[in-house]
Amino acid sequence: LSVVYNGEIYNYKELREELRELGYSFETDTDTEVFLIAYHHFGNSCFEKFVGMWAAAICDDENNTLTLCRDYFGIKPLYYASVEGSIYFASEIKFLTEFEPSLKEVDKKTTYDFLVHNLKEHSKNTFYKNIKQLEPANILTISQDKMELIKLPMVSNKKMTADSNVYEAVKKSIDYHLIADVPVGISLSGGVDSTIVASYLASQKIKFQSFSSIFPEFKQFDESKYVYDTIEKYKEYIRENLIKTTLDQSWNGIDEILTCMDEPYNVLGMFQPYSIYQSAKEKGITVLLGGQGADEIFGGYKAQRKEYHKEVIRTLSLFEIFRLVRQKKINKSIIKEVLLEKNWVRKLKKLEEDKNSKGYFKGGLFEQEFNARTWYFNYGLREYLYYDDRLAMWHSIEGRVPFLTLGLYKLYAGLPYSDITNKGEQKVLLKEAFKKIMPASVYNRKDKMGYVSPQEIWMKSKEDEIKKFILNNSFFKSELKEEVVNNFNHNKLWRHYIVARWYDKIIN
């Protein structure tokens, strides 16, 4: 066996000792060797033992097979293409298209899903017709006569166990993600999740640099107050870097970010996270921790409140329903919506059954019951991780996400919302576990931003230029009429603009 892989196995030292007890010897002190020997001994079961992220290719010369595999959440990317009987694979699309220029053919169905439904990273398909991506938790084995795809099981608990300690579970995961022989920093947004990571490190008397994006001139998008509160609480340990991004920076950076991404991206404000990694690189930081994944596991989105409402209504707790109605936390329309099984499933089915749809977003989506939780795991989270990995690696930085481990997923992702929230209030289970070390202002936050930017304001100043570019672009040709483009909201207008810009910059 031989392996090439992109990623990191944080618990490789424990696994190495386990394998030594089974009779294996090691020639190096690397996680790559542990990866390979663990796979040799345990087969696909080894992945359940890994705390980490990976996109890997394993070559078995004896059986003449190539196995491609990707971590459970899709933190690291893996693309592949078949050209004239040969398989090409890489962590970046640009490598494949440089190697084989014929792969620069637009996939119109994926493009349609992005333009019309605002969906990206929702299937194995990419914006390139003959380039596919291995989806999270998937294993693809290729031999001379067949390709076999299997999905790794992800089973979460449905009931809280007596010994489940949220603080200890998250602490253990953060400790693993701190293992490095290079400087480690934090992307500190001012939200609950990154603040928890920063507060934990500082409480352990670890000194580090934080990187935060602020918009002091746009108060509705500025989280600097919460960033300052965290820094002030732990000023002995945190060396802050506060970064302002402007419309000119965002606009002038479009082509470079497109080159970084290989595909269209969904907001003009992408320069904001780009600038975080850029600043970290300038300060000599090689590993940057983030808070992604906590919302999905611990119930951090407002839309997930409806899942709590659904639980309440289905248990027929009339007293609780009455209390929520009286406090205006739930109303008759929500009750009606839940009882009529509207919400996520109905919306998804409506899109799936759209007879006029020209995209992939139809068929095969309902193998499991969809709700707010599965929506965010299968769609939103994948897209966020896509952007973070590309931006980090573009700056030679390893982005790490301590909330995204199979262990935390198994413990908390399957719990009823009534166990991880308080009467529908988000992330109470997580916040309570770290209440003593968090700034009070962040603990008590009721709003949620998550690296937002003044997209609509910026777009208005460029509206005429954007519309003109779309209407004159060769990709859309004469398919779009001026009156149609004039009726686009700013988000849809951006999506059409970035596809046209991508077509000119990357495809042509």
Q: Could you walk me through the main structural features you see in this protein, from its secondary elements to its overall organization?
A:
This protein is α/β, with parallel strands linked by helices. It is built from 25 helices and 13 strands. It has a five-stranded antiparallel sheet with strand order 1-2-3-7-8. Strands 11-10-9-12-13 form a five-stranded parallel sheet, with helices on both faces. A three-stranded antiparallel sheet has the order 5-4-6, covered by helices on one side. A hairpin with a 4-residue loop joins strand 2 (52-60) and strand 3 (65-70). Helix 13 (305-314) crosses helix 15. The longest helix is centred in the C-terminal third of the chain and has 23 residues, at 372-394. The relative contact order is 0.13. Mean pLDDT is 86; it is low at 363-370.
